[in-house]
Write a structure and sequence with these properties.
Blueprint: H1 7-31, H2 33-70, E1 76-77, E2 80-81, H3 85-139, E3 141-144, E4 147-150, H4 153-208, H5 210-224, H6 227-268, H7 274-284, H8 291-306, H9 311-334, H10 342-396
Antiparallel strand pairs: 1-2, 3-4
């Protein structure tokens, strides 16, 4: 028996099946949120080497292009310029990796000894700080109305002695629970290091054949989508690339400047641990809005142990740097790179931070900006269509929306 296919009903059937599966996915996500997020984290964990490779290729590719077009082509072999595009690309990648990895190792060689020295100094001063707190508690007093009250350290000591066994047992239980967390952290850190190493290796192939990969992606999109959709997809990719590159590169430069300014100001003000605190301030400054306060809070904790009298001065310095960055430096470097209002920036940081932890706070803003940009384009397109329809109906005087 011959079956006559009806294009209209076939389209309806396809949309029905797609909506059915979409409803199942939404149901599973909403009512099994923990399992869904665990599944997403598992997928991201498996894809981590490729994600790192894409990020590495994204940042190193401009350097490769610059070296290939301006430096490598000037190099001569046996009196003649290098003509092979493959050799130019390979030499550019090798030189770019040498510059990037060499710069990272150079910074570690300079910064890490100072950071370790600062951490050691803080750990050495911590017992003395605890003793000072204990001595203060022996003479501490507080007022209530016209009466002064003192802490009776003998009673406090007796209370501590009576409860020490239970306290030690609780500490032992907490420590036993904490050991697996330490092992998990060590395992996670080693996994991240290995993923980054694999990322550097995979990025070589991505950068070497980037034109071929981009061409294949373009052919695939052109083949499966109608012509009027292609332009929208390519425009979205270009805008996403602009958002990511301008945000990350601009924020890296901004954080580097803030870290250096913090270091020199701390040196001039003779505040201890300038390198350690400046590194923390520079790294956390990558997080919009919350970053400076996180770095400042950590710096205050260090200074409370090492040099409490410098805390107020340090807080003033951090506030001044934050104002300078937010009102002068940041707008000059970043401009309106993401196009997000402050509310959406804070929303994206909290959302992605809650979903993916500290890393989510770093990447949340550009990712959310891309998502919002796509949604805005879809809304604008449908809005313009509806406005055009209303105007055409008004011209024909048959507008059903007209009161």
């Amino acid at each position: 028996m011959k079956i006559n296919h009806n294009h209209k009903y076939t389209t309806i059937a396809i949309y029905t099946v797609l909506v059915f599966f979409a409803c199942i996915i939404v149901y599973k996500v909403v009512f099994s949120w923990d399992d869904s997020m665990a599944f997403v984290r598992r997928i991201l964990s498996l894809m981590s080497p490729f994600i790192f490779a894409l990020l590495i290729a994204f940042f190193i590719s401009p350097m490769v292009n610059f070296l290939e077009n301006h430096l490598i082509r000037r190099i001569k072999f046996k009196g003649h310029p290098i003509q092979s595009l493959k050799i130019k690309r390979i030499l550019s990648i090798i030189l770019s990796y040498f510059i990037v990895i060499g710069s990272i190792m150079f910074l570690f060689a300079i910064v890490m000894p100072q950071v370790l020295r600062s951490i050691t100094d803080i750990s050495d001063k911590l017992p003395g700080y605890i003793d000072s707190v204990i001595k203060w508690s022996q003479t501490a007093s507080f007022s209530f109305g016209t009466d002064n009250y003192y802490i009776d350290f003998k009673i406090l000591s007796a209370f501590v002695s009576e409860n020490t066994p239970q306290t030690l047992e609780q500490i032992r239980e907490i420590f036993n629970q904490f050991i697996p967390e330490i092992l998990n952290f060590t395992k996670s850190f080693a996994s991240i290091v290995m993923n980054i190493l694999f990322g550097f290796i995979i990025a070589v192939y991505l950068i070497y054949n980037k034109e071929a990969y981009l061409k294949s992606a373009g052919r695939f999109i052109t083949a499966i989508l109608p012509p009027h959709k292609n332009e929208a997809i390519f425009s979205t990719f270009k805008e996403s690339h602009r958002i990511f590159s301008s945000f990350f590169i601009g924020k890296l430069l901004d954080s580097l400047i803030i870290g250096l300014l913090c270091f020199f100001i701390l040196l001039i003000a003779k505040i201890p641990y300038p390198i350690l605190i400046s590194v923390i301030v520079g790294i956390t400054n990558m997080i919009p809005y919350f970053g400076p306060f996180i770095g400042g809070f950590v710096g205050v904790l260090f200074l409370l142990i090492g040099s409490p009298e410098k805390v107020i001065m340090f807080a003033i310095i951090i506030l001044a740097l934050q104002q300078f960055d937010g009102n002068i430096l940041g707008p000059k470097i970043l401009g309106d790179s993401t196009g997000l209002e402050p509310f959406w920036v804070i929303f994206s940081i909290i959302l992605f931070g809650g979903m993916f932890g500290f890393v989510g706070m770093f990447i949340g803003v550009p990712f959310f900006a891309v998502i919002k940009n796509i949604i805005d384009h879809i809304i604008d397109r449908h809005y313009n269509r509806k406005i055009a329809l209303i105007e055409s109906l008004n011209d024909a005087d048959v507008n059903p929306y007209k009161l």
